[in-house]
Specification:
By secondary structure, the protein is of the alpha/beta class. Helix content is about 45%, strand content about 15%.
């Protein structure tokens, strides 16, 4: 890592109806938008680009490593990661091969954020029982880490995975492939990441900024108790947001699309979810979880997250609900030119002062 604090963006590739016409963009055009966003993020100086895995017709991102490979060909420095890989319904061998291939194509820029996933449509699609959700994830995570750390394989198999002992699993990445644990903030998942000595990626939706303080504390405790160097512990956050020239303008731009996204693309969490403007505005205050506002307002909130959780990475889910591309790209530019440089500078100075 070259910078103390990394700022990036994430997409699920959702396709929502146009607010004015009601028309739905073609999947081909939506894919082109996603790649353009990544190119602009790279040019603006952002650090990370993530694609979240979903398996429904209102999303186009069912194959994140394929999308990220297209991005790799058009970018130079930005890191490329899943956000998340729904590991319980995947083959860990194929996950490793796909991201090792991406790593080679991108000259060492690939990562995996492995999680259980908050949507469950991939389990019946690939022949898994949702009742085995937790066991599948736990076993396949151990298998994936074993594959990363040893070749030929030494994984002895289990109820949900086959014996890989002695097998050649290729290709191999440029270096050690980073694997983060994606978590919804529960103390159990945070503790698991700490015991394994892996970085923790917190997925935030709505709620107060300090809602995961207990889980993050458990992460650091487990990390140290397991004998891992505490200096290697890393916490990142992923949150919905938008940055604009002014605080009010940013909120006014984000709200109508975010409301649509929560209603149209979030229905597996509850049909007809409607977010009133007053609730949205409450989440945009300094104590709320949304990363929305002017550049300085967003910087201040990220500093708050850093103080609360020790975060060293923030991924913005911009434009949820399929915001027009011009507005999406404008926010990416502001993140790269006015938010990220200030965070890096401020935190670097803080470290020097405390040294």
């Amino acid at each position: 890592m070259t910078d103390l604090f990394e700022v990036g963006i994430i997409t699920f590739g959702e396709i929502s109806p146009d607010l004015t016409t009601g028309k739905v963009m073609s999947q081909r055009d939506r894919m082109a938008e996603i790649v353009e966003q990544a190119v602009v993020a790279d040019e603006a100086g952002l650090d990370v680009y993530a694609v979240g895995e979903h398996h429904r017709s209102d999303f186009v991102a069912s194959a994140p490593p394929v999308i990220l490979a297209a991005v790799a060909a058009r970018t130079k420095r930005i890191r490329l990661t899943s956000g998340v890989t729904v590991l319980g319904s995947e083959d860990p061998v194929r996950v490793f091969q796909n991201f090792a291939t991406l790593d080679l194509l991108s000259d060492g820029r690939a990562e995996i954020i492995a999680g259980r996933g908050s949507f469950s449509e991939s389990f019946p699609l690939f022949g898994y029982d949702v009742a085995d959700y937790a066991d599948l994830y736990r076993e396949k995570l151990n298998a994936l880490l074993s594959i990363r750390d040893s070749n030929p394989g030494v994984w002895g198999g289990g109820p949900h995975t086959r014996d890989l002992t002695g097998l050649d699993i290729a290709p191999r990445p440029v270096g050690e492939l980073p694997i983060w644990i994606g978590s919804g903030g529960t103390p159990a998942s945070a503790t698991r990441a700490g015991l394994m000595g892996l970085p923790l990626a917190l997925g935030l939706l709505l709620g107060p900024v300090g809602q995961f303080a207990h889980g993050v504390a458990k992460y650091y405790e487990a990390f140290e108790a397991a004998g891992h160097p505490v200096a290697n512990a890393r916490v990142g956050i992923t949150a919905h947001g938008y940055v604009g020239p002014t605080s009010q303008g940013a909120r006014d731009t984000m709200y109508p699309y975010f409301k649509v996204g929560m209603r149209e693309n979030n229905h597996q969490r509850g049909a007809g979810f409607d977010l009133p403007r007053r609730a949205f505005d409450a989440q945009a205050t300094p104590g709320g979880g949304l990363l929305v506002g002017s550049p300085q307002e967003v910087i201040d909130k990220l500093m708050t997250y850093h103080e609360l959780y020790g975060t060293t990475r923030a991924l913005f889910h911009l434009g949820y609900g399929h915001m027009p591309q011009r507005d999406h790209l404008a926010a990416i530019e502001l993140l790269g030119t006015e938010v990220a440089p200030v965070l890096r500078r401020e935190l670097s100075q803080s470290v020097r002062r405390s040294a």
